[in-house]
Amino acid sequence: MALSLKTIFLVLGHLILCSFQPSSASRELESQKCGEDGFYCPTNGECFDRELRCNSATVCLDSNGKEAKCYESSTAGMYKYYRKESPITSGSSSRKKRSVSNLKHWFVEYRGFVYEFGKAGFQALDINDPNYKYGPGREKVLKEELKGTSRCTSKQVREFSKKWEKEHPKYHLIANNCQDFVKALLQELESNCPSRVRRQDEDKESLKAQCPINSAGLSSLFSFNWKLYAFLTPLIAFAIFDMI
Length: 244
Description:
- The chain is of the alpha+beta class.
- Helices cover 36% and strands 22% of the residues.
- The protein has one domain: endopeptidase fold (from Nostoc punctiforme), CATH 3.90.1720.
- The protein has five helices and seven strands, in the order αβββββββαααα.
- The strands form two sheets. A five-stranded antiparallel beta sheet has the order 6-5-4-3-7, covered by helices on one side.
- Strand 1 and strand 2 (46-49) form a beta hairpin.
- It starts with a helix and ends with a helix.
């Protein structure tokens, strides 16, 4: 059966795309000065725990006495998050890499970190790191768009991202890519990490199930003991009086 021109072009296009080795969806994790669990403070050159980044811990302040590049909104505890784009480039033996036309790598910036998904899997990049992938003179950011504000903590975002990666482990330029990850993460941020709230509620319900005596049970137990006490008190008093 003869193939239509449209089918032939689709197959050829898929083969061409798969022949590229996108550098933005790097096959290796980016090297970070403070590792995967720390963040770099450019003010004093020290490394701190990531849990202290952009949460009013004030361990790393700029010359204005503020946490740099945290982008907290006018509402306390709410931080802005951005969707950003960079070019997807093909692997090449030449020093200058070729940009793949109309294909963009997406990633999210939130609370001092960039979250992205590529061939190496999920990674959270410290934007203050000296080796920051999208820093000056490195990979170009073509577009950034403010998408909203969120209360999610950095820990919650990492937990969600790792869970998403576990459910979608194999990167594919068309079927399972950076844009799929970003869309899911943006939805989670917009909803203020509801999956985390649900887990906390489930933990509470599980604890209640293991401890069947609730406040109502305690109340009824106390009521029963009070009635028993009221019934026994005259008998005890009469017995004591009779002994005297």
